[in-house]
Specification:
The protein has about 280 residues and is α/β, with parallel strands linked by helices. It folds into two domains: about 150 residues, HUPs (Rossmann fold), CATH 3.40.50.620; about 120 residues, HUPs (Rossmann fold, 3-Layer(aba) Sandwich), CATH 3.40.50.620. The protein is built from eleven helices and ten strands. Strand 4, helix 6 and strand 5 form a beta-alpha-beta unit. Helix 5 runs parallel beside helix 6.
């Protein structure tokens, strides 16, 4: 299923922990890993440097920018080298890539010919994050055309596939991914839906049965009442080694842009790896 995996690295400790998920998946699928470090162009050409130049009444800051670029590139090489070593230890083929650009956009562009994107939930500024997601993660999850695995801050072996299903087209595509992963990795599949209406619950069960019947998979399904993000988080916490799979968007795209989607809320409330698909 996943033959080429793009891993975005930033050199942080949490990122390296997340890389272990990519290594685990690569071993399961005999996949190649592409290791990507992006030199953030905003750090080289952003307003900060222009403001400093103006306030100090100095003309060119080209040398300063060049020095910053060199430092960031060296940091990138060091971050990539750590992942290369992990891949080598596990006998996994890998390809290092260092690019300069807007981080989320570059990640999505480099992922065009890969099957899976792996990003850390929070990166180098995790200690100041106050539990919120990094902006890069949210941007990649919204823009990427490939499945995105948002890794947890701590690594654990994946033992159960939990599929959060709401009946949307995004959820249908994500369910196909969840079923494929469960089948290939020989892991149990649990489908979870949240609905307060009895007729809607019956419809969700019928849709899941129809989508999974031909795959010959055994699965468990729960339809719960309550707030979707809270109920999904409770289910995830109740199982050992969960990998949560869900659509990157639900039914209302406009509502998500204004209020924040269930997807984002679930990511903020869970600590397990989450596989998103649009």
């Amino acid at each position: 299923m996943f033959k080429t995996i793009l891993v975005a690295v930033d050199g942080s400790e949490t990122c390296i922990k997340g890389v272990r998920y990519a290594v685990n998946i690569a071993k399961r699928n005999q996949a190649k890993v592409r290791i990507l470090y992006v030199v953030d162009i905003k750090l080289l050409e952003g307003p900060f440097l222009r403001d400093v130049s103006a306030s100090l009444a100095i003309v060119p800051i080209a040398d300063y920018q060049k020095n910053i670029a060199t430092i960031l590139e060296e940091r990138g090489k060091a971050a990539v080298a750590v992942v290369e070593q992990l891949c080598e230890q596990e006998g996994i083929e890998c390809e290092p890539v260092i690019k300069t650009g807007l981080v989320s956009r570059t990640i999505c562009t480099e992922a065009d010919d890969t099957d899976l994107i792996v990003v850390g939930r929070r990166g180098e500024h995790v200690h100041w994050s106050d539990g919120f997601l990094g902006t890069t993660v949210e941007a990649v999850a919204r823009r990427a055309k490939k499945p995105v695995l948002v890794t947890s801050d701590e690594y654990h072996e994946m033992g159960v596939i939990v599929m959060a299903y709401d009946g949307s087209s995004h959820a249908n595509r994500a369910l196909s991914i969840a079923a494929g992963v469960a089948g290939e990795w020989e892991l149990p599949l649990r489908v979870v839906s949240v609905s307060d209406q009895e007729t809607a619950a019956a419809s969700l069960r019928s849709e899941v049965d129809k989508l999974l019947t031909d795959r010959g998979l055994s699965f468990e399904m729960q339809v719960l009442e309550g707030e979707p993000d809270e109920e999904i988080a409770k289910v995830v916490e109740s199982v050992d080694g969960p990998l949560l799979v869900m659509g990157a968007y639900g039914h209302s795209r406009v509502r998500e842009l204004i209020l924040g989607s269930t997807t984002v809320q679930v990511l903020r409330k869970t600590t397990c790896p989450v596989l998103l698909y649009r």
